[in-house]
Amino acid sequence: MLRDSLAAVQGGAARLQRDLANSSDAVTRTRSREISDACASSARASKSVQQTVATNPEPAKDAKQTRAGVIATLRELRTALDQCHADFARLSDPVMAEELRGYGVSRAERLDQPIGRYNLALAEYLGAVDIILPLQSISPEAH
Fold first, then answer.
1. How far apart are CA 136 and CA 94, in angstroms?
2. What is the CA radius of gyration of the chain?
């Protein structure tokens, strides 16, 4: 669920970048609203995942305590997603068209690092509890 919603965020950012040069302000505002909505959805999903991971017992196999890393990166990710939601909701206003065109892509790129850190922490945690997923299925570059 979280992986899919993060893919929607990254897909929205890619569409915004693609459309900036040749699209109307109305189209770029639509892209901004899509990113804002996707960030809000991902923030809700990350909260749910964080609660699930935090309330389950620490796996005996997790000697490195990688679960704590997942929880920490989920917290960081949720903060970044909440900020993304607020930023792109604000940039959807018609008076913000110039700022959206000038800074929208860089604002969306701010999510790349928190998403990447979460994906790495998740892969480490899943590996510690013997759940192996292909790296491409959790990599931000795969979406």
1. 38
2. 17
